[in-house]
Amino acid sequence: MLSKNQIKLIKSLGQKKNRQQLGLFTVEGIKGINEFLDSDFELESLFTTELIFDTSANKTNEISEIELKKVSSLKNPNTALAIFKIPKPVQPSNDGLIVVLDDVRDPGNLGTIIRLCDWYGVEDLVCSKATVDCYNSKVVQATMGSLTRVNVVYLDLEDYLKSQKNSFGTFMSGENIYTTNLPETGVVILGNEANGISENIKSMVERKITIPQFGKNQTTESLNVANATAIILSEFKRRTIEK
Amino acid sequence: MLSKNQIKLIKSLGQKKNRQQLGLFTVEGIKGINEFLDSDFELESLFTTELIFDTSANKTNEISEIELKKVSSLKNPNTALAIFKIPKPVQPSNDGLIVVLDDVRDPGNLGTIIRLCDWYGVEDLVCSKATVDCYNSKVVQATMGSLTRVNVVYLDLEDYLKSQKNSFGTFMSGENIYTTNLPETGVVILGNEANGISENIKSMVERKITIPQFGKNQTTESLNVANATAIILSEFKRRTIEK
């Protein structure tokens, strides 16, 4: 059974300000929920049409398919919806490669970038305050569980970058990513989908890098930010094999 | 003015079978339409709220914002919608790097992959018959004009691959893409979002390649197919610089 208050709570978590105020967010689907249950995230409550999860009885609510449909953000809800607590922010380390996002707005892009960080062993993802919230349900869905393994922090980028060495920014022109020297430790900054890296951050970038175009077509478009992240992480990390 | 028949025609082009029967597809927005007008694609008719395009008068229809909204597939229609003719399929060349998609279903993924082919100078993209139609409006939108510069062909993959040498398939395990030898000419096969490369195609792959995971997290998820394409094209193409 879903009470009116529970419905109201779940729906309210669709908005960032409510998530932040209550310190809660939702995860949907068997696989995603199990990834969060297996992690350090703390379960607040679970709503499920099948009692197949390893959760304590007082946090588990059996509900009907119709009730699930009512609160789900998915077209085709998958068995369960869970509410987890948003963990306290952990400061990024000063070691290894760190990805920095300057106002990435698309939830799918952020979700995919978190998944890429997970794949390439990037432990910290620093986001500007205007970057889409990583506890947005579309982001959580797109991360496929990677959000449990990557530390995502929202900081004032200007402040943060002041204390960082080896900062790389991705631009339409700059050092060729394939032929330039890349360190194992540093920060890689990627910009907004439409406008790239903002002017105030641009001036703080130590090294401008670019992914060159091949072939005879020289398009004026840039690559999608998630694809650019994929290629750049690939380049930084493959160098660590060769050493 | 938009006639009832014109509205009916435009709406009918939302379906693949109608696009194929009529040999027509739609493009929306100023930038996208201009990319197609500047290419070898042939304009059938243009519907626009502003007469800002370099098109012949008998193919140009001035319409109102309200009329555009009625036929647009976008939430926020952008000035114009054009109908172009689907060109005759061109057989892929047997030179250079060719990307092959085995049942990629998501329009955003196909659009992004076409954009990546354009960026990396891949001239031919061979798709299985079950791969999403490249003239689907969401694909056209996601390609950002790259569809005018990449030859997309739908073929029976088993037939096609019989005559191909140097075929590479992407799998969760295989030769490490970063350390294995990669030729300049060959075909790279990427599989369906959920199921990867199908069984019958798998047996035709000469070399299985993989993008290794880094760091301590070993996720069971694979990378998104568009990101995998980005990383693989990046690896194949950077080798051509070093030579």
Offer a concise description of the structure.
Helices cover about 35% and strands about 20% of the residues of chain A. Chain A has helices at about 5-10, 15-20, 30-35, 65-70, 105-120, 135-145, 155-160, 200, 225-240, and strands at about 25-30, 45-50, 60, 80-85, 95-100, 125, 150-155, 165-175, 185-190, 205-210.
CATH topology name of the largest domain in chain A: Alpha/beta knot
| Secondary structure tally: strands of chain A | 10
| Poorly predicted parts of chain A | none
- Ends apart, CA distance between termini of chain A: 58 Å
Helix content of chain A: 25-40%
Strand order of the biggest β-sheet of chain A = 7-6-5-9-8-10
Count of separate DSSP helical elements of chain A = 9
CATH homologous superfamily (4th level) name of the largest domain in chain A:
SPOUT methyltransferase, trefoil knot domain
CATH architecture assignment name of the largest domain in chain A: 3-Layer(aba) Sandwich
SSE pattern of chain A: HHEHEEHEEHEHEHEEHEH
Question: How would you characterize the largest beta sheet of chain A?
Answer: 6 strands, parallel
Q: What oligomeric state do these chains adopt?
A: homodimer
How large is the share of residues in beta strands of chain A? 15-25%
The overall number of domains of chain A is 2
Mean pLDDT of chain A: 94
- Describe the global form of chain A: elongated
Pair of chains with the largest interface and how many residues each contributes: A-B, 38 and 38 residues
Name of the CATH class of the largest domain in chain A:
Alpha Beta
Using only C-alpha atoms, the radius of gyration of chain A works out to 20 Å
SS class of chain A:
alpha/beta
